[in-house]
C-alpha cells in the first residue's frame, strides 16, 4: 500500500493588505537574494552573492507547505532571474498565493546589469508585460513602483497607469516602495493603492510611515525586517568576511549596519546583543523574535524576510506559529533601545 504523506499545514495567522481586502499570511517571503548575482553598470554588486537555484526552489516550496501565501520580488532582482525562479517554484500552485513584484529599473537580462530607471507610464506597461511572462502568470496581485525617490508628479501619472492595469485585470492592487510618507500619500490617492513597502525592523523604526498606513488604510510591507541579516545571528553578524558579489561587502549609502564592508558594524551588533534575551524569549530564535517585534508594532505590518536556503525558510515560516511579542516585551525593547 502506498503511504502518502502531506507536509502542508494551515497557518491561521493572516493579515489583510490594506483596503484591498486581499488576505495574506502575516509573513511574506522576500525574493531579492534568490535572484543571484547582478551588478550596476559601474560594477557595484547588487545581489547577495552566489545562490543555488535548486535550493531556492525547494525553499519556496517548503514555505508554501508551511502556510506562506505571500511572495515579494522585483523585475530587477537578478535582472529577471528572481521572477523566473519564483514562477517556476510556484508552478501550479500560483493561484494559492499573492505575488507582489516591482518595476521602474532598467536592466539587461543577458549581462545581469542594472542601468538606470524609467518613470514613464509607457515603461510601466512594457515592464508589466515582461514580468507577467517571466512569472508565468496572467496577473500580478500587487504591483509596486521601485523608484523610491521618483518625482511626485511622475508618480501621479504612474498611479493612474496602475488604475488602468487594474481595470484591465492585469493587476489587483498596487503600492509604492518608498520610505517617504509624503510620496506614499500621493500614491494612496488612487483607489486601488493598498500598501506601502518600506524599511522597518526592530533597529530601524518608522513611526511616521506607520501612522500614515493607519490613517489611509494601507498595509505596511516591511522590507529588510532582519536588517539584512544582522538580526539573525548568521555568519555576517559575527563579522565574517562577505563574498565579493554580496552587496553587503560594498554597502551603498542607503544600506546601514555594514560599515565599510568588512562585516557587520560593531555598534549595530551591540544593539542586537542587547536585544537578544527579549527577542529569544518564548523559545524563539533571534530571527523569529525580530519578526515577532514587527507583528507587535502594528496590526498592519507584513514582514517579508529574504532567504537563501530551506533551513532559513523553515525558521522564518515557523515564526508564524509563535505570533507577535507581548506588549510587555515590546516595551522592554523600547526601554533597551532608549526609545
Ligand atoms: N523595495 C526595495 O527597495 C527593497 C529593498 C530591500 C529589500 N526589499 C525586499 O525585502 C526583502 C527582505 O529584505 P532584505 O533582503 O533586505 O533583508 P532581510 O530580510 O532583512 O535579511 C535577509 C537575509 O538574512 C539572512 N537570513 C534570513 N533568514 C535567516 C535565518 N532564519 N537565519 C539566518 N540568516 C537568515 C539571509 O542572508 P544570508 O544568507 O547571507 O545569511 C537573508 O538573505 C527582499 O528580499 C526584498 O523582497 C525591497
TrEMBL record:
The keyword Oxidoreductase applies. Gene3D superfamilies: NADP-dependent oxidoreductase domain. One of its GO terms (molecular function) is oxidoreductase activity. Residues 27-336 form the NADP-dependent oxidoreductase domain. Keywords: Oxidoreductase. InterPro entries: AKR2_Oxidoreductase, NAD(P)_OxRdtase_dom_sf, NADP_OxRdtase_dom. SUPFAM superfamilies: NAD(P)-linked oxidoreductase (SSF51430). Pfam families: Aldo_ket_red (PF00248). Its EC number is 1.1.1.-. The keyword Iron-sulfur does not apply. It is an enzyme of class 1 (oxidoreductase). This is Aldo/keto reductase. It comes from Streptomyces kebangsaanensis.
Amino acid at each position: 500500500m502506498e503511504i502518502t504523506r502531506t507536509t502542508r499545514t494551515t497557518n491561521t495567522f493572516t493579515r489583510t493588505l490594506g483596503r484591498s481586502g486581499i488576505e495574506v499570511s502575516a509573513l511574506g517571503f522576500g525574493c531579492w537574494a534568490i535572484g543571484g548575482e547582478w551588478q550596476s553598470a559601474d560594477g557595484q554588486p547588487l545581489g547577495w552573492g552566489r545562490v543555488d537555484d535548486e535550493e531556492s526552489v525547494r525553499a519556496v516550496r517548503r514555505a508554501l507547505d508551511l502556510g506562506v501565501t505571500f511572495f515579494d520580488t522585483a523585475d530587477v532582482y537578478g535582472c529577471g532571474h528572481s521572477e523566473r525562479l519564483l514562477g517556476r517554484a510556484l508552478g501550479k500552485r500560483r493561484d494559492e498565493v499573492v505575488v507582489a513584484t516591482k518595476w521602474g529599473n532598467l536592466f539587461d537580462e543577458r549581462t545581469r546589469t542594472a542601468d538606470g530607471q524609467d518613470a514613464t507610464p509607457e515603461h510601466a506597461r512594457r515592464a508589466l508585460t515582461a514580468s507577467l511572462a517571466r512569472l508565468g502568470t496572467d496577473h500580478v496581485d500587487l504591483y509596486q513602483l521601485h523608484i523610491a525617490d521618483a518625482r511626485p508628479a511622475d508618480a501621479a501619472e504612474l498611479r493612474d497607469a496602475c488604475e488602468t492595469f487594474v481595470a484591465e485585470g492585469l493587476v489587483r492592487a498596487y503600492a509604492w516602495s518608498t520610505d517617504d510618507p509624503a510620496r506614499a500619500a500621493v500614491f494612496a490617492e488612487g483607489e486601488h493603492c493598498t500598501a506601502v513597502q518600506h524599511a522597518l525592523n526592530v533597529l530601524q523604526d518608522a513611526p511616521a510611515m506607520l501612522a500614515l498606513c493607519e490613517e489611509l488604510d494601507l498595509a505596511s510591507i516591511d522590507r529588510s525586517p532582519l536588517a539584512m541579516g544582522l538580526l539573525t545571528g548568521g555568519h555576517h553578524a559575527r563579522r565574517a568576511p562577505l563574498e565579493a558579489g554580496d552587496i553587503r561587502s560594498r554597502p551603498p549609502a542607503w544600506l546601514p549596519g555594514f560599515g565599510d564592508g568588512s562585516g557587520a558594524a560593531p555598534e549595530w551588533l551591540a544593539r542586537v546583543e542587547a536585544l537578544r534575551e527579549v527577542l529569544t524569549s518564548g523559545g524563539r530564535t533571534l530571527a523569529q523574535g525580530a519578526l515577532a517585534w514587527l507583528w507587535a508594532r502594528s496590526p498592519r505590518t507584513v514582514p517579508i524576510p529574504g532567504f537563501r536556503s530551506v533551513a532559513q525558510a523553515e525558521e522564518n515560516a515557523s515564526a508564524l506559529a509563535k505570533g507577535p511579542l507581548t506588549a510587555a516585551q515590546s516595551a522592554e525593547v523600547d526601554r533597551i533601545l532608549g526609545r
